[in-house]
Specification:
There is one protein chain. With 237 residues, this protein is of the alpha+beta class. The chain contains 7 helices and 6 strands, in the order αααααββββαββα. The strands form 2 sheets. A 3-stranded antiparallel sheet has the order 1-6-5. A 3-stranded antiparallel sheet has the order 2-3-4, with no helix packed on it.
């Protein structure tokens, strides 16, 4: 935000001695470079602030009458407006590009977690090793304070992370995106080949609000543990 406010002013001051020999369109293009730099390194709001700041200082320093926030020539008005519009568009595009990059990195991390659990399910001699790995992954993925696994029958009626990634409290759906996870233990039931084997008990960090995508990955990880437990049960039989 500070760079968005200050950088266009500093660059305008640097260019001021060349005002008589530099076309206003060239000045506008140079200022756009600053807007792009702020938008790429900052966020959408910072880019918008930089675009507005660039348009203001372009008007103040490079349009007649100089050192006043007025413009006499229609061509300069168009240039100033285009500078503002282009700056705003660039800041939006930069923000979208950053978001897509974050999604790509996040998706790769999710796939890596699922792959690690699946690989261990195939190779581990003990289902407990898979359960322990999934507990660690769930703790990191959902930003939990603690995660434990309960074998066997169910006790109580805690909030539940369902198979579709939603969270229910009693019979009502809980709005995770708006309210975060409930501030109590949440159960994530584990099945293998249609058989119930237990549940992961999730104790979330206060204010944690994992995305639906993260919650669906958590369900998939629990399913991996269920497969390992089912394989172990079949082997014993």
């Amino acid at each position: 935000m500070a760079a968005g406010l200050i950088a266009p002013f500093v660059l305008s001051a640097v260019l001021l001695p060349t005002r008589s020999g530099l076309a206003n369109t060239d000045v506008a293009l140079i200022l756009v470079v600053v807007v792009v730099a702020v938008a790429v390194s900052g966020n959408r709001v910072a880019g918008a602030v930089a675009a507005l700041s660039a348009a203001v200082w372009f008007d103040f320093f490079f349009t007649r009458p100089y050192e006043r926030f007025t413009i006499d020539k229609a061509g300069d008005v168009e240039t100033a407006v285009l500078l503002l519009v282009v700056g705003l568009v660039v800041s939006q595009l930069a923000a979208r590009a950053r978001r897509l990059k974050v999604i790509a990195v996040t998706d790769a991390d999710y796939l890596s977690r699922i792959h690690d659990a699946a690989e261990l399910t195939q190779s581990a001699r003990s289902a407990g090793a898979v359960v322990d790995l999934v507990k660690k992954q769930l703790t990191d993925l959902l930003n939990l304070r603690d995660c434990r696994f309960e074998y066997g029958s169910l006790l109580g009626h805690p909030p539940r992370l369902e198979q579709d990634g939603t969270v229910t409290v009693g019979r009502r759906r809980w709005d995770v995106e708006r309210r975060g996870l409930p501030d109590e233990e949440i159960e994530l039931r584990t099945f293998g080949n249609g058989h119930f084997y237990g549940r992961f008990m999730l104790r979330p960090t206060s204010g944690a609000a994992p995305t639906l995508q993260a919650r669906l990955v958590a369900v998939t990880l629990a399913d991996q543990a269920g497969r390992a437990l089912d394989t172990a049960e079949t082997t014993r039989e």
